[in-house]
């Protein structure tokens, strides 16, 4: 049996979807266990380019069962749009898509409050996607959430919805928004429910049976470690736990069943939204990374902030999650650079410092310490083995391995599934 978890090792947008798609070729179950449609995983294959927000990235493999676990918050309208895109591509989910009835729902008032909270905070805004993720998780923790299971009992769902609308409208109006209509929302959501109902099934038994039968299971994390509510630079984080340990609660699988944890990181680093980013580049190099890497959010379209690879962060996320290997993406974006900077450590007020020593303000005060490495200044897009990579490229990867303390097993040299080197 192999249970593999794929986790974002930086601030998100690392390219996890591509590697889940690759690994799903041998997986029998692919499980999404956290986050909502604020995540965007891009898949490029023979069907085209797909930006998935809720569907597990193993969806294109007909032998893989796709599970959306109870740790995910569902925007039903967004999810149904994804289903339609798959239908256009000729991808069927009959008997292979299972959604936990324990999933909490993202409601229209969550999206409204998300935007209104950000506006009210002004210059101190977090920079959320505005998709209602934070308010939905807040309701989940505050015993005010609505779940898929509630919709199986229409009168119960309607009663709960009416109560929440009466509460939320007071907040919305106080913050300058327009009140919402409970009847309209109920009609809308019962329409959504009729579409997704065939896929709703308790997923715990499916996973437990798969473990007993020694099947290959792939766990797909959303967001990334540095956006975790506890270990990220709070408050510039996401609303869910993004560590590998979240799979225990968010999927329903014991932690000791996971025997491989792959940390996915870019060959440089990006971030969306506000918050500290020590190696951020506000110069022509940053603009070049954004242009060549097409660094615009899959979910929001916002331009991503770009910077050099930060080994201090990857050392931290590797230690916290127990990465067994790294997957390095977008290495080809660095093809045109004559020299490449790699941050190995931080300096804070005259001494060496670690990410975990302080908060967001502390991180803003840290100065990265760089090592300069030679670029390779040639295309690596056609390389399919370690030996085919230029010497300078191999040196760069080996330096990341030394600094991060984890072997780089997977190397992305382009966006397509086959543009990948897998080291033995």
What labels describe this entry?
Adenylosuccinate Synthetase, Chain A, domain 1; 9-stranded mixed β-sheet; 424 residues; Adenylosuccinate Synthetase, subunit A, domain 2; alpha/beta
Tell me what the structure shows.
This protein is of the alpha/beta class. It has 13 helices and 19 strands. It has helices at 16-23, 76-88, 108-121, 133-141, 148-151, 154-174, 182-196, 204-212, 246-252, 284-293, 311-321, 360-364, 391-404; strands at 3-8, 29-32, 41-45, 48-52, 65-68, 73-74, 97-99, 104-105, 217-220, 260-266, 269-271, 305-307, 309-310, 325-329, 339-348, 351-353, 367-374, 408-412, 420-422. The strands form five sheets. It has a nine-stranded mixed β-sheet, sandwiched between helices. Strands 13, 15, 16 and 17 form a four-stranded mixed β-sheet that branches. It is globular. The model has no long low-confidence stretch (mean pLDDT 94).
CATH class (first level) name of the largest domain:
Alpha Beta
CATH topology of the largest domain: Adenylosuccinate Synthetase, Chain A, domain 1
Q: What class would the helix/strand composition place it in?
A: alpha/beta
**Corresponding CATH architecture of the largest domain:** 3-Layer(aba) Sandwich
How many independent structural domains?
Answer: 3
Unreliable residue runs: none
Main sheet attributes: strand count, strand direction, barrel closure: 9 strands, mixed
């Amino acid at each position: 049996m192999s249970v593999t978890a794929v986790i974002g090792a930086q601030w998100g947008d690392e390219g996890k979807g591509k590697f889940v798609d690759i690994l799903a070729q041998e997986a029998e179950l692919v499980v999404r266990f956290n986050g909502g449609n604020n995540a965007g995983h891009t898949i490029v294959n023979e069907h085209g380019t797909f930006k998935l927000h809720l569907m597990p990235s193993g969806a294109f493999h007909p032998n893989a069962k796709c599970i959306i676990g109870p740790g995910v918050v569902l925007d039903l309208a967004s999810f149904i749009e994804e289903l339609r895109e798959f239908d256009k591509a000729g991808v069927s989910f009959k008997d292979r898509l299972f959604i936990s009835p324990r999933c909490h729902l993202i409601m229209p008032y969550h999206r409204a409050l998300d935007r209104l909270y950000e506006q009210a905070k002004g210059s101190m805004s977090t920079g959320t996607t505005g998709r209602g993720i934070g308010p939905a998780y807040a309701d989940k923790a505050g015993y005010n959430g609505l779940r898929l299971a509630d919709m199986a009992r229409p009168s119960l769902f309607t009663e709960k919805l009416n109560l929440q609308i009466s509460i939320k409208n007071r907040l919305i109006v106080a913050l300058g928004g327009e009140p919402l209509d409970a009847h309209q929302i109920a009609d809308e959501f019962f329409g959504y429910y009729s579409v997704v109902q065939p896929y709703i099934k308790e997923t715990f038994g499916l996973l437990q049976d798969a473990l007993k039968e020694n099947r290959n299971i792939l766990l797909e994390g959303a967001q990334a470690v540095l956006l975790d509510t506890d270990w990220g630079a709070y408050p510039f984080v996401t609303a869910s736990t993004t560590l590998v340990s979240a799979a225990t609660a968010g999927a329903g699988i014991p932690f000791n069943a996971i025997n491989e944890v792959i940390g996915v990181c870019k060959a440089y680093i990006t971030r969306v939204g506000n918050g500290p980013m020590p190696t951020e580049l506000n110069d022509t190099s940053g603009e070049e990374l954004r242009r060549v890497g097409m660094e615009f959010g899959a979910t929001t379209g916002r331009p991503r902030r770009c910077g050099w690879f930060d080994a201090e962060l990857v050392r931290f996320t590797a230690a916290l999650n127990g990465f067994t290997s790294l997957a390095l993406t977008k290495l080809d974006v660095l093809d045109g650079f004559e020299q490449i900077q790699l941050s190995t450590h931080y300096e804070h007020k005259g001494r060496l410092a670690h990410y975990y020593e302080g908060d967001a303000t502390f991180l803003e005060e840290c100065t990265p310490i760089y090592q300069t490495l030679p670029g390779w200044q040639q295309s690596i897009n056609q390389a399919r083995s370690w030996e085919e990579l230029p010497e300078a490229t191999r040196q760069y990867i080996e330096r990341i391995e030394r600094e991060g303390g984890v072997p780089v097993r997977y190397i992305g040299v382009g966006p397509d599934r086959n543009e990948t080197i897998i080291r033995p």
